[in-house]
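Narrative of activities, Objective 1.

The group set out to show that a structural description can be obtained from nothing but a protein's sequence at a throughput compatible with the screening campaign. Below is one input-output pair from the validation batch, recorded exactly as produced.
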Amino acid sequence: MKEVPGIVFDGGQASYNLQALAPFVQAAVRNTSVHEARETAARAATTLQAQQNPEGYWVGDLTADTTLLSDYILLQMWLYPPAANGSWDPPTMPKIRKAAKSLLETQRPDGGWNIYEPGPSEINATVRAYTMLKMTGLSPEDPRMQKARTLILKMGGIQACNSYTRINYSFFDLFPKKYCPTIPPEIMIIPGSVLYEMSSWTRTIIVPLSIVQALGGTRPTPGGLRIEELFHPNKRIALHRKDRIANLFIRADKLFKRWERQSVKKIRDRAIREAEHWMLDRLHYSEGLGAIYPSIMYSIMAMDVLGYERDHPDLMEAIGHFDGLMLESEEGMVFQPAKSPVWDTAIGAFALGEAGQGNPEQMTAAADWLLSKEIRRRGDWATKRPNLTPSGWVFEFANEFYPDIDDTAMVLLTLLHAKASDPERQKRAERRAVDWLLGMQSSDGGWAAFDVDNNWQILNKVPFADHNAMLDPTCPDITGRVIESLCKRGFDCTHPAIIRGVHYLLSHQEENGSWYGRWGVNYIYGTFLALRGLVASGAPGAVEAIARGAHWLREIQNPDGGWGESCLGYDTERFERAVSTPSQTAWALLGLMAAGGVRSNSVQDGVRWLCENQRPDGTWDETITTGTGFPGVFYISYHLYRNYFPLLALGVYGKRSKS
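Output recorded for this entry:
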């Protein structure tokens, strides 16, 4: 065993000497009852255990904003065009009416719709909701529509909408096509790997979308309805211009449009065939293309314009996966952007294990189910890592071309607690997954979500990059989780991958001591995972960074003892305080406890907040959005976050208090 100031290494693991770190992370003690915390954790565990599927997995609802409802109605307009006389009576009309009802019920007092709770009204969500309500028969003179229209014009009119709203509306001649970015299918036959320099989710969106743009033409609207009233009379219609480089891409877009009209048929046909084959390859081994809402929707539209009959197995399967994202009740409807069983199972089982609440049979069932989901197919990631043995886990039930690094790291953490019925099979899978994680480290030392070195910044200048997710760059939250996962399997700060990962985290710490969170809201999420990774590494040079991160968490604690952060921070690029939430309170506690502050006032107050705010059924309420899809554009509410993260935090608190 060797020692450096503030850190103890033991058997490849690292812990921080509380006495040495006391000036940084300790404060006077308030005694929150450990017994009370354990009782709270036990109630949470009982509820979570009852939610496990008989097959061994957990899956919570995953909800987002109303654009998914609006786009559902748009897809029905595409699949079931109105009759020649303008009447529209698709077979899905009962669901369309329910979607419209849900849209109306979520309208904000100012007339708009937002993209996160409790955020302000947002132009794209509001335009889409207004349009689809009009298409389903709500009069523009209805007071609710008048209020929405007034707000839309105040926000700049439909001209202020992003590329994907514009493109979708161009398919119905609701927005001029010449002012929409062109995505030529010829991108499939350009020499090199330009397609794979884009993020995985962008790939799965633009490939089918390029087919639709090339072949789709326009479809009629019910009754020939228009939305001219949404165009601001004093705003020019144009492709969005950001800067000089963006303008170069806009000029290139004009060339693409000319090519659209004059393209050599043989080249265009080959490009469309390549796009179709690429799309179908990924459809056959997933819950729809990319297993995410927009990609599945565009794949359905692409197969339709390619001439697939409605009873074609591939089209029927895609529609089935799309409809499977629907959460319907008598009261209304919401759509999930994806399903999250691997993610929820990994975190849920890990929380139970850390809390000492893991029922052996249930944990074995979880481990067996997770092992059955290991990816053994070469996906898009292999373009840059052709010699890496396939492994890893996806987020969803099935999405074999897209295992992700975050899920893989989380599953490896879970398998430390959850033991499968076949130990040898588990060992082999774990070895493969560790090797895959090591192989997926980017050149800057960090880890991204799906790819390696996905960082061509120039791609952020293309006209259709305004969904703010053109790339999949490395990020502190995933990097911290990967380091923790590897170090809990015997790696330490002498391993080259850990050295580079730690350096990445240290170089990406904000001036105030926090870390940015790409996949959870926001700086609280990034900071908790960075701290856990740095502490697990035992890196001597990380002591000051850990202390600064812990200090920042204490500084932004709410007066009620909890923590809360708004999605607004992605727009302002700083921490934006919000009401305390169970998930973010748990994240902050996990970060502080990793840094050694188990008995600090901050931890005691945070634990007390969790205990006092638990519901009698062992769950917590969470009213604000804490998950991130595309920063500034799309956010997610993970309905199990509010339950298993507090369980994890309370479990760690109970264990650390005992020691």
